[in-house]
Amino acid sequence: MDLLKKEKLERLLKYGLVLAIVFCCILLLPQVRKLIIQIGEKVLGRGLSHDYWMNKMKVYSLYAMCFFSFFLILIIINVDRLFSSRYIKKIFIFASIGIVIMSFIVRIIMYIKCRSLWLDEAMLAESIISKNLFELLKPPLMNTQSAPVLYVIAVKFICLILGYSEFSLRLFSLLIFLGLLICEMILLKRAFNFDRFKIAFVVSMTALLPSYIWYSNEFKPYMGDAFFIVLIILLYFFYTQRKIKLSTLTILYILILGFSSPAIFFIGGMLFSEFFIAIFNKNKKQIAYIVISGTSVLVVFCLYYYWWMQPVSEAMRRYWGIPHVKEILQIFNTGVGNSDSSIIMFFVPFAFLGIIFFGKLKNKIVFSVILSLLFAFLASFTGNWPLGGRLWLFLPAIILFFTPIGLDFFYDKIRSKIIKNIMFFLFVAIIIYSTINCFEYIGDKMYFSQQEINPLIYYVQKNIKEDEKLYVYPQAKFAFDFKNNFKNTKNRNITKDKIIYGKNRNEWNESTVGNELLSILENKKTYLIFQHYWVGIERGLSVLQNYGNLTKVMDVHDTPLYYFEINESKDKEY
Predict the structure, then answer these.
(1) What is the mean pLDDT of residues 379-408?
(2) How far apart are CA 438 and CA 440, in angstroms?
């Protein structure tokens, strides 16, 4: 009877999946998608963006087709037999190698396409380019930017060798991401004794995470945070195995402090963990050594904080604001570009199960990681470390470490084959979705909306005439100066006398002629470059239209270039 029910259920699923695949194929027809949009317009009573929804339906139909097709194949070849087979593990291991290679190819293509520096990158770039090595060691950095001192020096050295470009500024992040994968494999094999199947899962998901794809292609230290936190844990494991001495561990930890700010929480977690173990074992000699090591790290960190971090600490507090507990729900969404990794929330419950399992085994590494995370959250809840996702980029890697153990724990406790199969399908679907999503970074997904200023600059450099000027929106100044050469007037394609630098972006959100618009109206013919205009520019553009002809020359990923020519008859009205 049970077998008959199972056969009926499988048959019903097969028919349903076939119909779902057929429906997705129908949605790929542009005429069908257009009809759906037209019906939606009539129902909603307002116009819809045809191109946007046409593309969205096409993309999601392809996702769904892959998902339903994989489901159908698994049901046809009997999922119970497939899941219990040793061959699926071998297939997945080989597939994960392909996934990691593919993710690197995607990243290389992103580097070749060379996304424009967005505002924060460009503001930090000014310090790297304008200052020599000695000047960089005098805090604070320009434009109230903050980055670990050794990260700044490392990027400066790369630029001195390769020249100043988006590629050289971001190269450190790509190299450090490669280091993250290598450290993961070593740690999972040595410390957690994972088999190749589990290692393949963790490494492939790390390679596919949107936040790690994005930040391995960004001139910011956050990708380094993920690497150095994993390195801290790996070094501690080597210390527990007596592969390195405590003095060596202390020196390495002090060096890491110069590359990563949240490293202090994990260094503290590792050393406190060792301190508690020494107390429990009543090892007075070891207690003394750990106290000396911890004190050395703490003294260096305090000096480093006073010298390097304190000059910008107040500015950072104002920028990030007071942390709220509800921000934990957004901790995997960095809020920058297409880097939302909220999908990792699905793994959190299994990671907790993995931590519980390791806790029962009294694993020293797990205890130290838990202690480190407690320190980090304590710092956030006391207002000393923001809960912003960018500053917690190390967390997804840690979640992924414990997920395979949690899954094993879950499968051992759950006896229902249906629930097990559903979970298997979901994990396969996540990997397939993440792989397809990774491919999309070859296209428009690699760009940051309202930040793609380079094509605009190239156009103006090529087409600006003697009687024309260029207005640069206040937030666009830094990326514009980077492409037009910081402090290098000899190679500038747009001379200084042709540039009008905006000073007050808030005036663009007003319906009157302030100093900002007046600087444009005083010139007869002006190009207008915008970037990072989140305050809004529509009202200001409407005002300009009252005094002349305003033409949108180009718009690259919501980054517009306008051309304004004053109407002679209204020249004196403003």
Answers:
(1) 91
(2) 5
Token couple for 382: 């006391």
Q: What burial letters (b/e) apply to 236-268, b meaning 16+ CB within 10 Å?
A: bbbbbeeebeeeebbebbbebbbbbbbbbbbbb
Per the prediction, the chain carries an average pLDDT of: 88
**Spatial separation of the C-alpha atoms in residues 340 and 336, rounded to whole Å:** 8
Element at 231 (helix H, strand E):
helix 222-240
Q: Give yes or no for residue 429 having a pLDDT over 50.
A: yes
> Whole-angstrom Cα distance, residue 475 to residue 533?
7
Q: Residue 570's pLDDT is what?
A: 61
Lookup: tokens for 279: 């107390």
- Distance separating alpha carbons of residues 155 and 168, to the nearest angstrom: 8
Helix (H) or strand (E) holding 107: helix 87-113
User: Among residues 464, 536, 451, which one has the least CA distance to residue 500?
Assistant: 464
Q: How far apart are the first and last CA of the chain?
A: 87
Q: Is the bond into 148 cis (omega within 30 degrees of 0)?
A: no
Instruction: Tell whether the torsion through CA atoms of 267, 268, 269 and 275 is positive or negative.
Output: positive
Mean pLDDT, residues 357-376: 89
Contact 233/138 with Cβ under 8 angstroms? no
The token pair at 325 is: 């507990």
Top pLDDT among 230 and 144 is at: 230
Please tell me whether residue 555 adopts helix, strand or coil conformation. Answer: strand
- Smallest CA-to-CA distance from 452 within 535, 537, 555, 339 is with 555
Strand partners, 500: 471
